[in-house]
Amino acid sequence: MNTIRFFGAALSLLFTFPVDAMQAPESSLGIFEGRVDVGSHSTPGASSFDDAKHAYTLSAAGSNMWFDKDDFHFVWKKLDGDVTLAADIIWPTEGGNPHRKACLIFRQTLDPDSAYADAVVHGDGLCSIQYRESQGDHTHEIQSNVTAPKRIRIEKRGAYVSMSVGDSAQEMKPAGGIFRINFEKSFYVGLGVCAHDADRVETAVFSDVSLEQLAPGVSTEEFESTLETIAIQSTDRRVVLHTPDHIEAPNWTPDGAALIYNSRGALHRIPVNGGDSSRIKTGTLTRLNNDHGVSPDGKTLVISDQTQDGGSRMYTLPIEGGMPRLITEAAPSYWHGWSPDGKTLAYCAQRDGDYNIFTIPATGGPETRLTAAAGLDDGPDYSPDGKTIYFNSERSGTMQIWRMNTDGTDQQQVTSDEFNNWFPHPSPDGRWIAFLSYEAQVQGHPENQDVALRMIPTNGGPIKILAKLYGGQGTINVPSWSPDSQRIAFVSYQPLYK
Prior knowledge:
The protein is an all-beta fold.
């Protein structure tokens, strides 16, 4: 690892800068090579390095860094490969626009609409990682659940970018929510400030700046988990929980107040805005998998558990926890959907050597087989009007989304593209079907893959990409829409490197 950390003497060499950058002796820029006002500015920005205080001070106007273009002042160095940049950030002046931004930036070009990723502290303390995947695209955001951290770090590993936060260089922790972005060859790395007001100049101070060129990392085959929500209109993501534990498959409670997820064979409940999680008691069942959910009236949980003999069976229990009641005698059975009237459960089960879709009364009883096509049928979930079951099937050659009447009749293919599409979940308002997409070469629904969270209008139309992430098994196996149909809960994963 080649580390550039500036604590004292500045380098004295001169560099040749791009014609669109304001040239300056490197001694005035510390470890950086150039500075420039990106975008439109009524007042020129300014930057300086204080060798004695080991601090960069940047001042800038600029209307915003958002949507499809940016206005900000930027000090930069051009690098390639894997890089990490960290700094302590303060706003020395109180007040100002709460959306003003002090950023650690990776940027493809100096054009206002360039692809970029940044870790940013806003004037009101909001800390987030923002990115524009390609030139001219709109900006997306992953909001941390940590407010006004003293120090932030942005890191690029291959095609993934992540952020860490903490009170010091020794206390940095991953903020959660990595995303995929492909920078071509060399790119700009540096510090930026935007006032979020074209007519006002704002100033931020960056100190103890650490810029590290990373050697190619080797994955430890260990992963951390991030429980997130995403707003379907803006595609902004919000971190609820980041943990070294492996967690999976969030459900949203019908009151919108909490999320339920599984980890290490148990269920846990956490407030939707983050906080302490609590374990839900499930009696003697201690090998729960990620196929669980909440009844429409919010009073009952359904779980799939393998404690008895390793075969997954379905049970119900009170929402607050309690003694489970066996629903399916036969195994394996994996729950996926609850009818809107609360009377019927839909699930995937292996019977006679093949996996198909079944239903059963929510109180138990005889099961009804709905599909019989060769190959795997999985992931059934009900439409909010109770008339349709959506599921995924590989009967057409690749895994695609299908639908049928609740009695199994009129089975029709919904998606047909180059991806393998899994786990369809209709929104409560009936307008959208959310699902998870794997690359064409991926077999099954394994964990730790490049995947996309996508959705399609129920009545047909173009598919919308909500997020590209590292995930797969455990990301959205079960229904995870918010009750108001505005957000989806999911889990992403972050590989650790040595």
